[in-house]
């Protein structure tokens, strides 16, 4: 079968797995547009002598690495989408695969050999042509260097050989069929630059600027926890972006971003709290968008951190290794109150691992299986398991010590803090203590296994493979000193067996059923409890942004897309920018709770694009 690419006028964008883990915490993000003004070197002050249109995305999440071989956080992987092209992407309307660096692809009858045609019009920013050799080198490096496989190794673990017989032909031979061959969320890097890198575990791609890439933007500068600067790639095959500069600027406080929006200093704010969204609905020149999200928000318990070599590490509470304790804790979580009081209706009650936005993979537990809110049942489970209350009303563990847990909380996320208070109340009534550790950086204790529970969340891709892979035994770190791709150190043979089956299943309906079985198994292990599917609640100034691409087209989100659509398509108000195809324009009107997209491109409706994450990750 040959899949033919649409014309270049068709546009696409997780994961990666939206990779949305909010295991390291993305809080309020904002977009600052200074029409007809440039920004100074600090990424935030206006250069009064300039005349550039500068679009600044303010984020509260730190960049973990600018190396696409290491990065896991949503901010970092989103930046990589802007810097590098991938073989394929996803249509923004319905998530089907559309071309990226590859213009077409075909598989052999036995599905073990895949051949990709690499486009001739993709050029690295240093002037060299992007070829199949770049893609082959990228994949082979991941296959032969464990450090290069840190972020995306699950995609290449089944590869047998990868070759480039000519500049426009990439051939991948598989050990067994693999369902993700049109969803390989791996940034393709320039071989002539990266083959000079020594230790892939330490190289962060953040010293020599500009960084060579072939995406819509070129990385030009970076300072830790200050800013990331990018300039338009004038040679990008889809057409260059309409803003003269894109800046991701670090902000710790979301309220400051909202205040800046009201003053006209900020043009776009995401991850709004209900109170913030309410206050902005009546603001002049401001639109609030409340769209179904692609993330889940969950409680994760430490299952006993362990590396692939069998070494145990971390300081997780041993009582949480008891299924009865985990189930009791989850029975004492009132998800309806969380939706009503914390999210104030801007979310859907969580159950399965994949949000309802992805209907074919969405799963719900049976009535008998469901761990619903039932404090009496929670208390009974603890009693039966031998965790009795002492004279002070505290539950006592089998070691005779009171049950006191810690939960990792993102200091930048008000939802974590609010839900933490409810958990302290609910679990306190059970006789269990809870210390809420709100940190600016939860990554360090998380990867060391130094936690009992944590607030967890990921953005999910149209293809769920990546967000499922982070719970396989293979995703754990090689040794306690290493960093793996695991989310929460879960290792379960039954889950792994189902993961292996879905990975080779090309029949969509059969694969969807396997994915649902995986969610059921993950639910039953009781290491995670999905509490909510938050909406994407965001706002922007209509006198700053004339148009910007949403995903999906109907009731879609703007920030946190898995891809470059929003930042690539954004058009400053008062300026008529040409599109990627001969001067046509993309108009996007975003209203409260809905998005209406009107697209004209050489007489064709413009297809757009998808995913977490990985994307989108984090």
From TrEMBL:
Its main location: other. It holds the Pfam family SBP_bac_5. Residues 98-469 form the Solute-binding protein family domain. It comes from the Bacteria. InterPro entries: Peptide/Ni-bd, SBP_5, SBP_5_dom. The keyword Cell division does not apply. The chain crosses the membrane at residues 587-607. Gene3D superfamilies: Dipeptide-binding Protein, Domain 3, Periplasmic binding protein-like II. The keyword Transmembrane helix applies. Residues 1-40 form the signal peptide. CDD domains: PBP2_NikA_DppA_OppA_like. Keywords: Membrane, Signal, Transmembrane, Transmembrane helix, Transport. It is found in: Cell envelope. Coiled coil: none annotated. Belongs to the bacterial solute-binding protein 5 family. This is ABC transporter substrate-binding protein. It comes from Streptomyces formicae. The lineage of its organism: Bacteria, Bacillati, Actinomycetota, Actinomycetes, Kitasatosporales.
């Amino acid at each position: 079968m040959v899949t033919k690419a649409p014309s270049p006028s068709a546009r696409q964008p997780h994961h990666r797995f939206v990779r949305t883990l909010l295991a390291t915490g993305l809080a309020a993000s904002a977009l600052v547009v200074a029409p007809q003004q440039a920004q100074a070197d600090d990424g935030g002050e206006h250069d009064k002598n300039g005349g550039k249109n500068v679009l600044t995305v303010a984020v509260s999440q730190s960049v973990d690495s600018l190396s696409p071989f290491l990065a896991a956080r949503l901010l970092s992987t989103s930046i990589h989408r802007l810097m590098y092209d991938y073989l394929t992407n996803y249509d923004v309307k319905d998530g089907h695969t559309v071309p990226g660096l590859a213009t077409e692809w075909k598989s052999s009858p036995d599905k073990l050999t895949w051949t990709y045609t690499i486009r001739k019009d993709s050029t690295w920013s240093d002037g060299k042509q992007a070829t199949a050799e770049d893609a082959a080198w990228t994949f082979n490096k991941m296959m032969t260097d464990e450090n290069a496989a840190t972020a995306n190794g699950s995609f290449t673990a089944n590869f047998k050989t990868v070759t480039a017989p000519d500049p426009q032909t990439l051939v991948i031979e598989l050990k067994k069929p693999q369902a993700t061959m049109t969803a390989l969320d791996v940034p393709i890097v320039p071989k002539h630059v990266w083959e000079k890198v020594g230790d892939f575990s330490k190289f962060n791609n953040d010293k020599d600027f500009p960084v060579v890439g072939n995406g819509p933007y070129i990385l030009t500068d970076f300072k830790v926890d200050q800013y990331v600067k990018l300039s338009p790639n004038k040679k990008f095959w889809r057409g260059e972006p309409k803003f003269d500069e894109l800046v991701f600027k670090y902000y710790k406080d979301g309220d400051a971003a909202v205040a800046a929006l009201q003053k006209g200093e900020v043009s776009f704010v995401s991850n709004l709290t209900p109170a913030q969204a309410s206050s902005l609905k009546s603001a002049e020149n401001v639109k609030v968008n409340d769209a179904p999200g692609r993330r889940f928000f969950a409680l994760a318990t430490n299952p006993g951190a362990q590396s692939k070599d069998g070494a145990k590490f971390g300081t997780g509470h041993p009582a949480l290794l008891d299924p009865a304790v985990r189930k009791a804790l989850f029975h004492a979580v009132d998800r309806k109150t969380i939706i009503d009081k914390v999210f104030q209706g801007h979310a859907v009650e969580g159950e399965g691992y994949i949000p309802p936005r992805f209907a074919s993979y969405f799963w719900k537990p049976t009535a008998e299986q469901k761990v619903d809110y039932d404090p009496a049942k929670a208390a009974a489970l603890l009693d039966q398991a031998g965790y009795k209350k002492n004279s002070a009303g505290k539950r006592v563990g089998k070691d005779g010590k009171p049950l006191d847990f810690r939960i990792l909380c993102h200091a930048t996320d008000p939802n974590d803090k609010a839900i933490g208070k409810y958990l302290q109340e609910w679990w306190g009534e059970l006789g269990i203590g809870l210390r809420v550790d709100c940190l600016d950086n939860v990554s360090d204790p998380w990867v060391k296994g130094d936690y009992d529970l944590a607030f967890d969340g990921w953005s999910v891709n149209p293809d769920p493979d990546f967000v499922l892979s982070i719970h396989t035994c293979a995703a754990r770190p090689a040794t306690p000193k290493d960093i793996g791709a695991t989310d929460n150190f879960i290792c379960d043979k039954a889950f792994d067996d189902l993961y292996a089956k879905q990975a080779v299943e090309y029949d969509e309906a059969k694969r969807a059923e396997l994915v649902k079985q995986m969610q059921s198994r993950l639910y039953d292990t009781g290491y995670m409890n999905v509490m909510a599917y938050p909406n994407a609640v965001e706002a922007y100034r209509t006198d700053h942004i004339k148009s910007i691409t949403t995903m999906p087209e109907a009731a879609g989100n703007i920030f946190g897309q898995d891809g470059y659509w929003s930042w690539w398509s954004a058009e400053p108000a008062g300026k008529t920018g040409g599109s990627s195809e001969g001067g046509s324009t993309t108009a996007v009107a975003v209203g409260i709770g809905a998005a209406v997209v009107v697209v004209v491109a050489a007489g064709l409706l413009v297809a757009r694009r998808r995913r977490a994450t990985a994307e989108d990750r984090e």
